[in-house]
Specification:
- The protein is mainly β.
- The chain is 5% helix and 41% strand.
- The chain has a single domain, classed as Jelly Rolls, CATH 2.60.120.
- The protein is globular.
């Protein structure tokens, strides 16, 4: 397994070792010792699995309390996955990183606590799975609008078409107005 730091050092792209033949493949997606040796030493308390259609954008979400670190991957289709540093004390505050995650490349992304997270579905559909370091707490959930001008995220929109959003995501505040971590 390769742990590749992003331009925001706390966010890590993970390339698993995949063993395959004519029967299919096998890969390890998480092992406490290996992850801890590579700086990701967290307990995971919840696993989530979502399916979304082409053009759906989910995010940018975070919890201001009961902060969640997320180990994310795609098991069907392809997404463009984004993490935004919401920690005002961080040297990378307000910066973002994004990667294509797909069932084909099998890459994973570690999004630590203190980051907003979102993804855009590039394929016909995508199934997205992730491990969380704390429980979902809707009363603490916050959002940042996906197309915030200050963040200037290049979402790699297919054919430049506007994404499909939930009402909550469409009405999310700007980065400037969003609640942040100290």
């Amino acid at each position: 397994m390769k742990f590749i730091p992003s331009k925001i050092p706390d966010v890590t792209l993970i390339e698993p070792a995949v063993f395959g033949d004519h029967r299919g493949f096998f890969m390890e997606t998480w092992q406490r010792k290996t992850f801890a040796e590579n700086g990701i030493d967290f307990d995971f308390v919840q696993d989530n699995h979502s399916k979304s259609s082409h053009g759906i954008l989910r995010g940018l979400h975070y919890q201001i309390e009961q902060t969640q670190g997320k180990l994310v991957r795609v098991v069907e289709g392809a997404v463009f996955d984004v993490a935004v540093d919401m920690r005002e004390s961080s040297p990378t505050f307000g910066q973002w990183v994004g990667y294509e995650l797909s069932a084909e490349n099998k890459n994973m992304l570690w999004v630590p606590p203190g980051f907003a997270h979102g993804f855009y579905v590039m394929s016909e559909s995508a199934e997205f799975v992730y491990k969380c370091t704390d429980y979902y707490a809707p009363e603490h959930e916050r959002s940042v609008v996906w197309n915030d001008a200050d963040l200037a995220i290049d979402w790699n929109l297919v054919d430049g078409k506007e994404p499909i959003l939930s009402g909550k995501d469409a009405e999310a505040p700007s980065f400037v107005d969003a609640e942040k971590f100290a």
